[in-house]
Design a protein that fits this description.
- The chain has about 300 residues and is α+β, with helices and mostly antiparallel strands.
- It has two domains: about 120 residues, no CATH class; about 130 residues, no CATH class.
- About 15% of the residues lie in helices and about 30% in strands.
- It contains five helices and 15 strands.
- Strands 3, 4, 5, 6, 7, 8, 9, 13, 14 and 15 form a ten-stranded mixed β-sheet that branches.
- A hairpin with a 3-residue loop joins β8 and β9.
- The longest helix is centred in the middle third of the chain and has 12 residues.
- The two termini are about 25 Å apart.
- The relative contact order is 0.16.
- Keywords: Signal.
Length: about 300
């Protein structure tokens, strides 16, 4: 899970949480892996918060409130007087967005350099995901085979059937085939309603076994467009890995992603060592690490 936090009109006015697995709870205060002696930096402007006990860098989930609720490593050497005009104070809580560079010891960050959001010239990463259909489009296009089995009810039902398949690796819907997908003249509610039309989407299922066997079972309950593809590992295998890494120091949250067929692991800090270790243990790319603090340079 990643987050974007916006400061509006000098006040912490809006918090937008993006990605899967985000919880509306404060971040972790568990110590992270050894940060080493090198400099680390927040990858984008991060929320710095101080309720009177000292400034801390917000990591992980943030509550949708004003002021925002969060927690994270203590900031050693932080002085709000150095950042006058770059933060807001609500209810006795000071908060602002900054790129912070410093040395991290696993529980606190000693500040070396600070850049307010307004002076940051970087770019936010693109966290959009590809939910396209891997199967080739049939001759004549994606079409409904049985209208009686292409309803909101059967769409929900086929999802449950898919999860019970042997070798189930994930499922998702591809709405890019829907004529409303790129329309800009619709209101938000109308656009969402049209995109959820079961007759205008492709239901995707990935399995580690034979696609034909899975498709035969799915066709018992689903009459709409269907693609069954193969994956390297089951969702259950990724859940087992998730259980194994969820108690590591610095863990923030994680999600099993489809169609990527990977475990997305969000931690406080990684200089590349954790990613290398997980690649060696589970295979390259099986666990995808993202960190709030990364090595400089």
């Amino acid at each position: 899970m990643r987050r974007t936090v916006a400061v509006l009109a000098g006040t912490i006015g809006a918090l937008t949480l993006a990605g899967c697995g985000a919880a509306a709870t404060a971040g972790t205060d568990r110590p992270d892996r050894d940060g080493g002696t090198g400099l680390v930096t927040t990858t984008t402007p991060a929320l710095v918060s101080d309720g009177g006990d000292g400034a801390e860098l917000c990591v992980g989930p943030i509550t949708m409130s004003v002021p925002a609720g969060c927690s994270g490593p203590r900031l050693v050497g932080w002085d709000w007087a150095d950042h006058d005009g770059d933060f807001a104070e609500v209810g006795g809580v000071r908060q602002g967005l900054f790129v912070v560079v410093g040395t991290y010891d696993g529980s606190s960050l000693t500040v070396r350099e600070v850049t307010p959001q307004d002076e940051w010239d970087g770019e936010y990463p693109d966290h959009s995901r590809d939910f396209s259909t891997p199967c080739p489009e049939p001759a004549g296009g994606w079409q409904v085979q049985d209208p009686a089995l292409t309803t909101e009810e059967t769409l929900q039902q086929v999802g449950w059937v898919a999860r019970g398949l042997e070798g189930y690796a994930g499922s998702w819907t591809d709405v890019s085939t829907n004529p409303a997908f790129e329309r800009q003249d619709l209101g938000e509610e109308e656009h969402a309603r049209l995109l959820n039309d079961p007759t205008q989407l492709v239901f995707n299922v990935a399995v580690t076994g034979a696609p034909a066997v899975a498709e035969e079972r799915l066709r018992e309950v689903w009459g709409g467009a269907l693609c069954v593809s193969t994956a390297e590992r089951t969702e259950a295998e990724l859940r087992d890995i998730e259980d194994a890494v969820s108690d590591m120091p610095g863990y923030l949250d994680s999600s099993v992603l489809s169609p990527e067929n990977v475990l997305d692991l969000h931690v406080v800090h990684d200089d590349g060592t954790l990613q290398d270790e997980l690649d060696a243990e589970y295979g390259p790319g099986v666990v995808r690490v993202s960190a709030d603090l990364t090595a400089v340079g």
